[in-house]
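To: structure subgroup
Subject: Chain for Friday's discussion

All,

I'm putting the inputs and outputs inline so they're searchable in the archive.
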Amino acid sequence: MNMDSSIRSKLREIFRKSEVVFAAPESLGNPDLVPFCDQILELYKLKDTVKGDFEEAFIEDFDIFKECTWELAQVCMYHLRLKRYKAHLEKRLREAQSIPDFRAIPVIEHILDAYQDPWKDKELFYD
């Protein structure tokens, strides 16, 4: 079953809007991403029968199209803990470490950290 294109469009729209808010001079930083994460969580709940497709869209939009900031991916993974996305990130981390890509390594590690409890970066997003 393929992901409904309107859902994919909505996901990309959330990613793009979050980037604009996050990059704005008046941005408060990571806390500004929480409402966008909430929108993604609601979208995920609506499409629980196509979770694998949702994961593929996350992989594609984060890694290929660069539509999603890593900070938004991080806070979303704290809540969603998508297994295929985690496996993808672990593979990307191994690749980055083998090069080594010192820009990618900490980004991927921060997202993977969000899969753990307690999540050490939680206070960066939530009071």
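Points worth raising on Friday:
The helical segments are 5-23, 34-46, 51-64, 70-80, 83-98, 104-113, 122-125.
The chain has seven helices and no strands.

D.
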